[in-house]
Fold this sequence. Notes:
The structure is a homopentamer.
Chain A: E1 2-11, E2 14-15, E3 24-30, E4 36-45, E5 54-59, E6 75-80, E7 83-86, E8 89-93
Parallel strand pairs in A: 4-6
Antiparallel strand pairs in A: 1-3, 1-5, 3-4, 5-6, 7-8
Amino acid sequence: MQIAKVRGTVVSTHKEPSLRGVKFLLLQLLDEEGQPLPQYEVAADIVGAGMDEWVLVSRGSAARQVGENTRPIDAMVVGIIDTVSVDNQVLYGKKDQYR
Amino acid sequence: MQIAKVRGTVVSTHKEPSLRGVKFLLLQLLDEEGQPLPQYEVAADIVGAGMDEWVLVSRGSAARQVGENTRPIDAMVVGIIDTVSVDNQVLYGKKDQYR
Amino acid sequence: MQIAKVRGTVVSTHKEPSLRGVKFLLLQLLDEEGQPLPQYEVAADIVGAGMDEWVLVSRGSAARQVGENTRPIDAMVVGIIDTVSVDNQVLYGKKDQYR
Amino acid sequence: MQIAKVRGTVVSTHKEPSLRGVKFLLLQLLDEEGQPLPQYEVAADIVGAGMDEWVLVSRGSAARQVGENTRPIDAMVVGIIDTVSVDNQVLYGKKDQYR
Amino acid sequence: MQIAKVRGTVVSTHKEPSLRGVKFLLLQLLDEEGQPLPQYEVAADIVGAGMDEWVLVSRGSAARQVGENTRPIDAMVVGIIDTVSVDNQVLYGKKDQYR
């Protein structure tokens, strides 16, 4: 999986019917130091992630394993991140963001 | 999924029979600021996207989940984009394109 | 899918038995202006593409959807390209190649 | 598969229910000379790898082949590496790390 | 598929049980001129490839189509290459390597 930050949303009304009701988030991928990478993903959201939150995104066929697995989805937000630790140091803590 | 812009079409008459009747669009991938990336995809179109429209493209096995899923397709246009918002600002609005 | 040009062949006699009889083409990927990219693929050929022809190549599990789908193939030529149009201009026309 | 070094952990409590109980490791990919690459993966751990250990990571649908294969996981640690040999020289030996 | 050169081996005794008995080769990917690319793969070997041999490697779910397809393997050596021809010239011939 990759670590990403929620940066926005994508709306499409004229789409594959099986995608109706799916919320699409625009995610910016982050590197292992938490810096933005020049890559993004549009991912289906099933955990209700909010703007600027760090999330775990699964890609490929893994993204179809939740709900109806015949939807043409190749990226999905599968968790809101609480903490990321690197070399036993906390790189990111969700709670620290709102102090 | 990725955001892309419809740039053209690809026609192949001598092809795998199960691909007969499939329309192939040439898509240029866009970055999260809407700028063209040096990557493109040839994708099957099931939503009738037009030239210069922004679309959502699914890749990998997700692209086979619509219609007969035994067609050798690895990229599919799954939606025409209405709006893309980044940091609560509208980056792209389909209607604005035709004012 | 990607657009590629047939550049050569790869022969392997000592291989996974299910690959017997499969012809392998060496393809150079092309960008959306028809220029060679520094990437290639060795793909199974089911349409009988010839040297220097432009072809459509499918990759990933899509490449196993034709014939026995338990063959360890991850790239397949699925069509010989007639035309590629970009911004309503013909970038490539198969017939023009042989005038 | 890729060779990676365990650099940390990712914790997510608000996540897809099928991911409960899955431990997520932050892995830095290594090149064939054992040097860190600017790429990382968040992978599910099923072998109990420890900090700084070199591991084998499988990605894509392969990562769902162990345990319930309907979990939205796209990267999994599948082995702790004992040795890596390149050109008949030992590049890495787990035991040498702890002399 | 990709063309690669066998550069070494990876040994892991503490691993996913279904991987027992699988030999892992360290492969360096080659470009279409036979030059080493800065990418490698650790691949399961089912054809008994030797050091420095050129091989065909399949990646993704294709790598699980041989033997038990529930093993978490995402790269597999599927053939030892005899010849690679580019623009009707032999780029590589296995027999020439041992003159």
